[in-house]
Write a structure and sequence with these properties.
2 domains; Rossmann fold; 10 helices; alpha/beta; 3-stranded parallel β-sheet; 6-stranded parallel β-sheet; globular
C-alpha cells in the first residue's frame, strides 16, 4: 500500500489561517500587532525570493513587516548599526538577517548580534542552549515545522525509534533535541556513520537532512515508517529531496514530498516564532 503524502503546503495554509486569528486576539489584547524585520545584504536571487515570501506571509496573517535591503558592500559595522536599531525598536519583535551573506561578513557574529529574545530563526547560542537544557526559548523554524508535520499525521512520537540523518546546527541537531522532548528514542547519523541502512531501517520516524539527492533508498526505510525529507537539491532544473521518493512511497506509511513538504512550514513557523517572541517580550515588560 502506497504511503500517505504529508502535504506541507496545505498544513502551512491551515496553520497560517489559525495564526491570523491569534494575531487578531493579540491585537485586541494589547493594541498592536507582532512585528518582523528582515535584513537582506546583497542581491542573491534566491534570498530575494525568500525575503519577498516572508514579507507577504507576514502581511497575510496581519503582522507588521519591515524589509531592509543593503548593498553587498555593506560593512559589518554598518550592518550592526541596523541590527542594534531593530534590537531597540519596540515595533519589532522578531529580527533576522537573510543568509547567505557576502563573504566578508561573519554569519555567527551576525547571529550573536541579534537580541536573543528577537532571534526568531532560533540560531543564537542562547536559544540553542535553552533548547538543549529544556528551557523556554525560540526554536529554529525548520525543525519546529518538522515536529508539527509529524504531529499532524497522528503518529505518537513517545517511545518510538527516531533516526535523524544529518547533524547540522540548522536542522539535524535541533530536530534531534525536539524529538527527545517528545519522548522519542533518538539516533543521529552522519557522514561517518557505518552501516547506515542497518540503523535507519529500524526507525519508526526517519528525518533525512543531508542535502544529497536520493541518498535514502528503499533499504534505508522501515515498513510503515514516517519519512520526513528535508533535503532540497536542484538536479537537471528540478528540486529533489534526500529520499528516493518513488521507492519510499512503497514502504513508508507517511512521507513528505519535495517540493511541498517541509519547505512551506519553515516560513509558517517563522511567523509563529514572531508571535511567540512578542508574547514573551510582553511578559518581561
Amino acid at each position: 500500500m502506497a504511503a500517505t503524502i504529508i502535504n506541507g503546503k496545505e498544513i502551512a495554509e491551515q496553520m497560517q489561517a489559525e495564526l491570523a486569528e491569534k494575531v487578531k486576539v493579540f491585537h485586541q489584547k494589547y493594541g498592536y500587532v507582532p512585528g518582523l524585520a528582515v535584513i537582506l545584504v546583497g542581491e542573491d536571487p534566491a534570498s530575494q525570493v525568500y525575503v519577498r515570501n516572508k514579507h507577504r506571509a507576514c502581511t497575510k496573517v496581519g503582522m507588521y513587516s519591515e524589509v531592509l535591503r543593503l548593498s553587498a558592500e555593506t560593512t559589518e559595522e554598518e550592518l550592526f548599526t541596523h541590527i542594534d536599531r531593530y534590537n531597540a525598536d519596540p515595533r519589532i519583535h522578531g529580527l533576522l538577517v537573510q543568509f547567505p551573506v557576502p563573504g566578508h561578513l561573519s554569519q555567527q557574529r551576525i547571529i550573536e548580534r541579534i537580541a536573543p529574545e528577537k532571534d526568531v530563526d532560533g540560531l543564537s547560542l542562547e536559544n540553542a542552549g535553552k533548547l538543549f537544557a529544556g528551557g523556554k526559548g525560540l526554536v529554529s523554524c525548520t525543525p519546529k515545522g518538522i515536529i508539527e508535520l509529524i504531529k499532524r499525521t497522528g503518529v505518537a512520537m513517545a517511545g518510538k525509534q527516531a533516526v535523524v540523518v544529518g547533524r547540522s546546527n540548522l536542522v539535524g541537531k535541533p530536530v534531534a533535541m525536539l524529538l527527545l522532548k517528545e519522548n522519542a528514542t533518538v539516533t543521529v547519523c552522519h557522514s561517518k556513520t557505518e552501516n547506515l541502512a542497518d540503523i535507519t531501517s529500524q526507525a519508526d520516524i526517519l528525518v533525512a537532512a543531508v542535502g544529497k539527492p536520493g541518498c535514502i533508498r528503499a533499504e534505508h526505510i522501515k515498513p510503515g515508517a514516517v519519512v520526513i525529507d528535508v533535503g532540497t537539491s536542484r538536479v537537471e532544473g528540478k528540486l529533489r529531496g534526500d529520499v528516493a521518493f518513488d521507492e519510499a512511497m512503497e514502504k513508508a506509511a507517511y512521507i513528505t514530498p519535495v517540493p511541498g513538504g517541509v519547505g512551506p512550514m519553515t516560513i509558517t513557523m517563522l511567523l509563529y516564532n514572531t508571535l511567540e517572541a512578542a508574547e514573551m517580550q510582553r511578559q518581561t515588560e
